[in-house]
Each structure stands twice: as structure tokens, then as C-alpha cells.
Design goal:
The protein is an alpha/beta fold. The chain has 2 domains: about 5-165, NAD(P)-binding Rossmann-like Domain (Rossmann fold, 3-Layer(aba) Sandwich), CATH 3.40.50.720; about 175-295, N-(1-d-carboxylethyl)-l-norvaline Dehydrogenase, domain 2 (Orthogonal Bundle), CATH 1.10.1040.10. About 55% of the residues lie in helices and about 15% in strands. The chain has 14 helices and 9 strands. Strand 5 (about 95), helix 5 and strand 6 form a beta-alpha-beta unit. The longest helix is centred in the middle third of the chain and has 32 residues, at about 170-200.
Length: about 300
């Protein structure tokens, strides 16, 4: 019999992951979902079927063998596990896909293990449209036996690949996720700069798009490029809000400094994120980096004429 699942957090990634767990996870029992805003969970449950909505986190945990979470930030994760660990969690497996710092990941994992549960850090690389298509890259770290318990529900269910860090402390998975975020922001910075360069020198953004599509088809380059050129960076629902992205940057910069690493491209992207926050607010999308580079180059923040 398949384990009983619950999922905490109905953000864009969480909604896509739960839909795919229901569709491809071969669950015997309905998936239990929980979200702080209950109406959001109820609407999502009605759309995916084979699921129920828990009134509280405690209810979601008590009825499950495996509890998967994808929450907003360090604070949300710590608050949730403070509630969770008030109950008996013996034998239960907690899988966390939140983007949080390694220190918080290790602290939560230690508390869960001490209480008799199991813990796997499984942050994911990819944005909601990739999650919907099961194209997430999942980074799994923790005890090998615990990783094995969640493995059948990763590749082909919520993602396309698993980076297996079995045997590493859970925080290593969160650390690698932070490195992945550096890569993503550097990619956005590169795409934004090249588009502005192409526009300013007369090549044109559409010719640059043809070049990127040929050189890097079906990659983040083409995904972010489309979002920038289409105006999605200021019109569409954010992939990640600027304020949330900036929360983790100070930690990454301190880590780079303490280890003696130079990450100048990332620092440039951070400076541009701060411009986006000033221009469009903390709820703006991180691909607004394009607008910031445009401003810096004497163009309007919005590319409304393209």
C-alpha cells in the first residue's frame, strides 16, 4: 500500500507539484493539502481531485506518513515545524522543498530526527511552468534510507531529475540550491544585458532572440528571454517576487566572502534587483532585472513599444 501523503504550501511550485503527485504518484489515499489561506487550498483541491483539505498543519501531519512542504521562507518553515513538532512525529518522513538557508535546514532536520522522525531536504530548481511540466531538478540530501523513501515520487512524478546527495547533511542540499540561484540570477543578468545591448547597437532584440533560441533551445535562457521580451516581467504573475529573492542574497554574499569566492555577476544582478524594487515594488518579478538594465542604459523600464 502506498504511503499517505500530505503537502504544505500552495504557492506556484506547490500547486504544480501537488497536481503531479495526484496525477502520477499512484496514491491509494487522497492527498491531504494545507495552506495558510484555506480558500486557496480548497480551490486547488477541487481542481486536481483525489485530495482533501486539512484545517490545520497538525491535522495534515497526523493523517500522513510523508509530509512534503514548499513554504515561503525561513520564517514560515520554522513557524510551521514549531507547530508540527508539538505532536508525535515518530516514523514520519518530512520532505522540505522550500528555498531556505542551510543553517535553518540543518536546525529543523536535527529537531525532527530528535523527535523520532525522518527528514530530507529537497529544494527544487525551476519555475512554476517547469513544475507543471514535471521538469524540476530536485536536490535530495539526508539519510540514504530517507531519500529512498521519497525517491519513487520524484523523477517522472514532480521532476525530470534528482541530484542525489544521500548521506550528506540536509543543509548541503539547501546550499547547492543557493548556488543554483546564483546561476539563475547570472543567467537573467546575461539575457537582460544582451537584449539591451542588441537594442542599443541596432542588432535588435528579435535577432538576438533567434540567436539565443538556436544556441540554447528549451533552456532557462529562452524561458527568461521570452518573459522579458513579452513584457511578462512587469505584466504577469511573478515567478519569484523581488523581495523574496533579496532575502537570500545577503546570506549568499556572506558565504562567498567568508569562502574567498568572487561572484561579481551575482552582485550586479543584486544591484539591479534593488532598482526593480525601487521602480516596481517588492512584489515585482525578478526578471524585472531587464527593466533595471534598460534604465541603466537610458531606456524606459517597460519595453512597451517592442
Amino acid at each position: 500500500m502506498a504511503p499517505r501523503f500530505s503537502f504544505l504550501g500552495m504557492g506556484g511550485i506547490g500547486k504544480a507539484m501537488t497536481r503531479n503527485i495526484v496525477l502520477s504518484g499512484k496514491l491509494d489515499e487522497p492527498l491531504i493539502i494545507y495552506n495558510r489561506t484555506k480558500a486557496r487550498a480548497e480551490e486547488h483541491s477541487a481542481s486536481i481531485g483525489h485530495s482533501t483539505v486539512a484545517e490545520t498543519i497538525e491535522e495534515a501531519v497526523s493523517g500522513s506518513d510523508i509530509i512534503w512542504s514548499c513554504l515561503q521562507d525561513d520564517e514560515a518553515v520554522e513557524l510551521s515545524f514549531k507547530l508540527i513538532l508539538q505532536a508525535d512525529v515518530t516514523g514520519k518522513l518530512f520532505v522540505d522543498s522550500s528555498s531556505i538557508t542551510p543553517e535553518v535546514t540543518n536546525r529543523i532536520a536535527e529537531q525532527v530526527l530528535k523527535a523520532g522522525g525522518e527528514f530530507v531536504a529537497m529544494p527544487v530548481m525551476g519555475e512554476p511552468s517547469m513544475a507543471e511540466k514535471r521538469l524540476l531538478t530536485c536536490i535530495a540530501s539526508g539519510a540514504p534510507g530517507s531519500v529512498d523513501r521519497i525517491r519513487p515520487y520524484v523523477v517522472g512524478v514532480v521532476g525530470r531529475a534528482i541530484i542525489d546527495l544521500s548521506g550528506e547533511e540536509p543543509g548541503k542540499g539547501s546550499l547547492l540550491k543557493l548556488m543554483g540561484n546564483v546561476l539563475i540570477m547570472n543567467t537573467m543578468e546575461t539575457v537582460a544585458e544582451l537584449n539591451v545591448f542588441a537594442e542599443k547597437c541596432g542588432v535588435g532584440v528579435h535577432s538576438m532572440k533567434k540567436l539565443m533560441d538556436q544556441m540554447f533551445p528549451n533552456t532557462p535562457y529562452s524561458i527568461y528571454n521570452y518573459r522579458m521580451l513579452s513584457g511578462g516581467y512587469y505584466q504577469d504573475t511573478p515567478i519569484v517576487e523581488v523581495s523574496k529573492a533579496l532575502k537570500l542574497t545577503a546570506h549568499v554574499l556572506e558565504l562567498a566572502k567568508s569562502s574567498g569566492a568572487s561572484i561579481k555577476g551575482y552582485e550586479a544582478a543584486i544591484d539591479h534587483l534593488k532598482v526593480v524594487e525601487d521602480q516596481a515594488g517588492g512584489e515585482a518579478d525578478i526578471t524585472g532585472i531587464y527593466g533595471a538594465v534598460r534604465l541603466e542604459s537610458g531606456l524606459p523600464f517597460k519595453n512597451e513599444t517592442q
